[in-house]
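Sorry to interrupt, but I need a hand with the structure work. Could you write out one complete protein record for me, on any chain you like? Just paste the record in under my message, thanks.

. . .
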Amino acid sequence: MPQTPQDTFFVTLTPRQLPGLQPWRATPAVLAYRLGPGPHLFRADNALLPRGSLMVLSDQDFDGLGPTAPLCQEICRECQARGFVGAILDFEGRLPPLVQIVAQLDEDFAKRDWALFVPEAYAHSAPHSRVMIPSALSGGSLQLRLEEAVEQFGPARTVLALEKSSEDFSLPSPTGCGQPLSQEQLEQLKQRLSPSVFFSGELCARYFTYMGRDGGAHFVLFDDEDTLRRKVEVARRAGIHTFLASWTEVSSCAAHIGIRRFSTATRNLQDIKKPGGR
């Protein structure tokens, strides 16, 4: 009888949040690195990081100037020194030097058997990488989106990046982009309007509509613990079993979306194996 594939969860978090993840079967991805001028690798926190984690690398301060090869060597040295087993490239820009960095890291990481996670826009520059597909959609079908991604990249390369998204769209919305809402803003809006909330099976998200004070129509699309769980289920049906999530967004619903806890026996065995354990 064929075995059911096991889910693998990678969770992004700050060094201070690491203790909260310890009871859970998930690989930490540490939010502590960025590309800066030079270009050089900058670290925001000097805390001791667990070996076997991933580096999360932001391009927020990258100006595109300077040679990229020394930077890639610097990133590899840092991963080696810290015991990282891979990196998540949280790149929002699309500068040519970033493409060069992605391609070089893809080669360097593949040689070391490290995992590299890249946004979909960089997938073709990094053939050995895993490709992050955002779970949030403003139109279309999540199931179709994921099936197409699996067909293009294969199930082993495709990663569902879970996002607890909330957006307020002014209608009509020709760009398909809304105004992001914080959880507090969403709750305040729901409390003020007491709207009828519906579930979209195509988007795997909840929504409601309202009329603004200026007389314009609005469409609010948002996620909660249940929609995140449903998105994981849709991904599994498409053959995807690797997930990325933010600890800030899923810490309250980790078990609900499928992250398992370590058993007491396993945790005790890990403690015994620690340096100094008996």
The chain has nine helices and 14 strands.
